[in-house]
Write a structure and sequence with these properties.
Elements lengths: L4 E9 L4 E6 L4 E5 L14 E9 L2 E9 L4
Antiparallel strand pairs: 1-2, 1-4, 2-3, 4-5
Protein backbone atom coordinates (compact mmCIF):
# COMPACT_ATOMS: atom_id res chain seq x y z
CA UNK A 1 0.00 0.00 0.00
CA UNK A 2 1.21 3.50 -0.82
CA UNK A 3 2.06 6.09 1.83
CA UNK A 4 -0.81 7.97 3.46
CA UNK A 5 -1.17 11.68 2.71
CA UNK A 6 -2.91 14.39 4.70
CA UNK A 7 -5.09 17.06 3.18
CA UNK A 8 -8.19 19.22 3.57
CA UNK A 9 -11.57 18.56 2.00
CA UNK A 10 -12.07 21.49 -0.40
CA UNK A 11 -15.53 20.50 -1.62
CA UNK A 12 -17.83 17.54 -0.99
CA UNK A 13 -21.38 16.95 -2.24
CA UNK A 14 -23.21 14.54 0.07
CA UNK A 15 -26.02 13.91 -2.45
CA UNK A 16 -23.59 12.94 -5.23
CA UNK A 17 -21.18 11.19 -2.87
CA UNK A 18 -18.09 12.82 -4.31
CA UNK A 19 -15.76 15.74 -3.83
CA UNK A 20 -12.17 16.97 -3.90
CA UNK A 21 -9.30 17.16 -1.44
CA UNK A 22 -6.36 19.58 -1.55
CA UNK A 23 -3.49 17.33 -0.49
CA UNK A 24 -0.53 18.53 1.54
CA UNK A 25 1.60 17.04 -1.26
CA UNK A 26 0.19 19.62 -3.71
CA UNK A 27 -2.15 17.26 -5.56
CA UNK A 28 -5.87 17.72 -5.98
CA UNK A 29 -7.53 14.32 -5.56
CA UNK A 30 -11.11 13.17 -6.09
CA UNK A 31 -12.87 11.35 -3.28
CA UNK A 32 -15.91 9.13 -3.74
CA UNK A 33 -18.09 7.90 -0.89
CA UNK A 34 -16.95 4.22 -1.11
CA UNK A 35 -13.39 5.38 -0.23
CA UNK A 36 -14.56 6.84 3.11
CA UNK A 37 -13.87 4.28 5.83
CA UNK A 38 -16.11 3.58 8.82
CA UNK A 39 -19.05 5.54 7.38
CA UNK A 40 -17.33 8.83 8.14
CA UNK A 41 -19.27 11.98 7.22
CA UNK A 42 -16.98 14.49 5.49
CA UNK A 43 -17.53 18.22 4.99
CA UNK A 44 -15.55 21.11 3.56
CA UNK A 45 -12.57 22.18 5.67
CA UNK A 46 -12.16 18.80 7.37
CA UNK A 47 -8.57 17.50 7.68
CA UNK A 48 -8.27 13.92 6.44
CA UNK A 49 -5.69 11.26 5.64
CA UNK A 50 -5.89 8.99 2.60
CA UNK A 51 -3.94 6.90 0.12
CA UNK A 52 -3.60 8.67 -3.28
CA UNK A 53 -4.04 6.40 -6.30
CA UNK A 54 -3.69 7.34 -9.96
CA UNK A 55 -5.88 5.76 -12.63
CA UNK A 56 -6.97 6.62 -16.19
CA UNK A 57 -9.17 9.50 -14.94
CA UNK A 58 -6.55 11.08 -12.65
CA UNK A 59 -5.84 11.00 -8.92
CA UNK A 60 -8.37 9.73 -6.39
CA UNK A 61 -8.33 8.96 -2.68
CA UNK A 62 -8.72 5.52 -1.13
CA UNK A 63 -8.93 4.51 2.56
CA UNK A 64 -9.95 8.01 3.67
CA UNK A 65 -10.10 8.72 7.42
CA UNK A 66 -10.54 11.86 9.50
CA UNK A 67 -7.13 13.00 10.74
CA UNK A 68 -6.57 12.49 14.44
CA UNK A 69 -5.88 15.58 16.49
CA UNK A 70 -3.03 15.58 19.01
Amino acid sequence: MADRVSGVVRWYNQARGMGYIDGDDGREVRVDSPAIEDGTFVVEGLRVTYVPVEDESGWHAEHLNIAKHA
